[in-house]
Amino acid sequence: MKFNESVERFKENMEFVRNMSSNTIGAYLSDLRHFERFLNSHDIDYTTVKRRDIELFVKEYSQGKYSKKRPSATTVARNLSTIRSFYTFLYISGMVGKVPTELIKNPKTRRRIPDYISHDEVMEILSSFKETNLGKRNRAVVATMYFCGLRVSEVCKLRLGDLRLGSSPAVRVMSGKGNRDREVPMNDQVLTILKDYLSIRKDFPVDEYEDHVFVGTRGEPMARNVIPKVLNTQVKLVYPDKRIHPHLFRHSFATQLLQKGASIKTVQELLGHANLATTSIYLHITDKEKRAAVQLLSD
Questions:
Q1: Model confidence, pTM
Q2: Which of 117, 119, 137, 150 is least surrounded by CB atoms within 10 angstroms?
Q3: Which residues are catalytic?
Q4: Which fold has domain 119-242?
Q5: For residue 184, which phi and psi values (nearest 5 degrees)?
Q6: Residue limits of the Tyr recombinase domain (predicted)?
């Protein structure tokens, strides 16, 4: 069986057996394309790959081969994890005799503390959108990412039926990362901004059967690659020296909730994290808190 055919079987397993999200599957397939370039460059049959071949791939990939730019240690570790999953699938399926990634450790990675911006900065950005149909839509997108902690992909997949705008307003996130569903309450600020957008949504050329919350200028579901472009244009008007990416609003949501006293368990559920350790990266300690802690030792 050819490499591409095995990858296709792996893809079907991820999609229909493991029920993985389309974004995760796409990332796995991208990683395997890097590995395929390695195999082709060394004329190696994927069914006969040995441990030393995997180690050589990790070395060369870390040096910038097989990708457009030199990857970070985190990206290298993710690629190795993908290859490990791929060969585990091949082994279970009887297509290879062993898993060549056994005993190979992931490269050490440095856990970065996520960047975030202040509440005032977010409000400055939200207030900078024009009172046009596109301005109201874009303001609602940013507000949903910040006040509800949604990922870009989750915002784009929202359906009208996922919004509860009456009593106990909330947004329902269906099949989030890891295919986990969750419900996030909405406060008055995001509710007002969303209602303002929804009141003019009909002005977009939306088909009667189109129920995505956020739509494009042709009435199509808003594509995830549009949001960074919209955000970059808007942020430059307010903070020309800042680089603000969409995920920063999710980081800010989590960080500010913890700083204001929300429990880490609550924030974990709001973010849809499977592991509490993932949420713990948002436990920033401010300089003020550090100074207060040191003062405890004073006479």
A1: 0.78
A2: 119
A3: 151, 177, 247, 250, 273, 282
A4: hpI Integrase; Chain A (1.10.443)
A5: -120, 120
A6: 112-295
